[in-house]
Design brief:
elongated, about 10% strand, transmembrane helix, ATP binding, Transferase(Phosphotransferase), domain 1, about 475 residues, serine/threonine-protein kinase, six-stranded antiparallel beta sheet, alpha+beta
Length: about 475
């Protein structure tokens, strides 16, 4: 069913006057509410013959959430109903021009207007995120922000809203490229995701460029380079904090950033007395990281010396680990096990050689080449770990003992992890570079052992040939 101008809805209560816009979730219409005698906005969702129930779910969620909200910078809910296979959501019509329309006529906002927008958006987000559970808009962008005639701003279109946090994941990816926070590409929407979208919208209206076309440093938008001296340092710091790619390091709220902006006035980049500058903090962090790396290197060197001493001691006592009894498989079980290991080797090779590089290449188109470069070492390490596991399994089913020193290496790796965990409590990620060396060392021993066995097996045949 098409909704034409002058068409009456809800038993003649609403008379459509014109179309306001069309989005992914439905059409927005202007209508006259004959009962209240004022203009309203009506969002229409086609539910009859819908190809997916996800769109119907989002429409019902938008109506439910909007009915629960009351804020001067949000459209007020008035009514919702079903008619002729469509769902209609009636809300207050906010007068003004969308920032998207301003963007299309190449208008930009000045510093004071951007600060006003940030202040109004801060009030809206504090209200939404302070509810239990938090309400997350998920799609703040210029098209969904209205600038009223008095210069204030309102946020509209809750078609992508989420009012339930799902710790287990599984959320649909909803949002607009350029304004979506990186975590939304993983299906994770957090209150900080809306902060990112507000920052991207502000920067777009300051520069006149879409966020994806602005200068980047890794995954982060380079705000200072994008503005090129057109904004005061305080505003640059505020927008940079809002556009931090890592949600755990991103500003959780806009209000504290505005307080710093008001206090500093943006007139100087000098740090306030008694507070270290951001540059000092970064320098201290780099020095700490350097000292940590040197400590790890010294620890690895000590471990190497210990391994060499143990090896020499074993040689001196004539210790021979290979003499220990080691039973493998025979006959059909051996053939089945080797077949399974061959299939596993092919699957690992396809995954790490084709599937993962392809996915990383596609993701790098969105997040930049840095993502692929940073992920490459992890992919290579995963390949080495898989290769080592497959070789160990092959030796086990054939009845061959593990190389000398394998157990000591595993114990040493476990000890390293425990020591680093004690030295850096609270860290969620521990990377042991010494483990990479242990992997390479054992792979080399396995290859050397395989060559030795191949040479030993070929000697009788060459002798018989003579």
């Amino acid at each position: 069913m098409s909704t034409e101008p002058s068409q009456a809805l809800r038993d003649g209560r609403y008379v459509v006057t014109r179309a306001l816009g069309e989005g992914a979730q439905g059409h927005t219409l202007e209508a006259v509410d004959k009962r209240l005698g004022k203009l309203v906005a009506i969002k229409r969702f086609q539910i009859r013959g819908a190809t997916s129930w996800k769109g119907v779910e989002l429409a019902e969620r938008e109506a439910r959430v909007l009915a629960s909200l009351s804020h001067p910078s949000l459209p007020a809910y008035l009514d919702h109903f079903e008619e002729d296979g469509a769902l209609f959501l009636v809300m207050e019509k906010i007068d003004g021009e969308s920032l998207g329309a301003m963007r299309r006529r190449r208008a930009v906002l000045g510093r004071d207007e951007i600060v006003r927008f940030l202040r109004d958006a801060s009030g809206v987000l504090d209200y939404l995120h302070g509810r239990a559970p938090p309400v997350i808009h998920r799609d703040i962008k210029p098209n969904n922000v209205i600038r009223r005639p008095d210069g204030s701003f309102a946020i509209v279109d809750f078609g992508a809203v989420r009012d339930r946090l799902r710790p287990e994941g599984g959320s649909t990816v909803v949002g607009t490229f350029g304004y979506m926070a990186p975590e939304q590409f993983q299906g994770r929407a957090l209150p900080a995701s809306d902060v990112y979208a507000v920052g991207a919208t502000a920067l777009c209206l300051l520069t006149g460029e879409e966020p994806e076309n602005l200068p980047h440093r890794g995954l982060a938008i380079d705000v200072a380079a994008a503005l090129g001296g057109r904004a005061d340092p305080g505003l640059v710091r505020a927008l940079s904090a809002m556009l931090e790619p890592d949600p755990e390091r991103r500003a959780a709220r806009i209000a504290p950033l505005l307080a710093e902006l008001d206090a500093g006035g943006g007139a100087s980049e000098r740090p306030r007395a008694g507070r270290p500058s951001e540059r000092d903090a970064r320098t201290a962090y780099r020095d700490a990281r350097k000292a940590e790396r040197e400590a790890r290197k010294a620890y690895r060197d000590a471990r190497k010396a210990e391994r060499r001493a143990r090896k020499e001691d074993r040689r001196g006592r004539g210790h021979d680990e290979a003499a220990a009894p080691w039973r493998g498989l025979d006959g059909l079980p051996l053939a089945g096990a080797l077949f399974g290991l061959t299939v596993a080797r092919i699957a690992v090779g396809l995954a790490l050689g084709v599937v993962v590089p392809t996915v990383l290449t596609l993701l790098s188109l969105v997040f930049g080449r840095v993502l692929r470069e940073q992920a490459a070492p992890s992919v290579r390490r995963a390949g080495r770990v898989a290769e080592l596991a497959l070789r160990r399994a092959t030796r086990a089913v054939r009845g061959r003992p593990p190389p000398a020193g394998a157990a000591q290496r595993e114990q040493g790796a476990a000890a390293r992890v425990r020591v680093e965990d004690q030295e850096a409590p609270g860290r969620s990620r521990i990377h042991d570079e010494g483990a990479d060396e242990a992997l390479d060392e054992e792979l080399d021993e396995l290859e050397a052992d395989g060559r030795t066995r191949s040479a030993a097996a070929s000697r009788p045949s060459r002798t018989g040939g003579r």
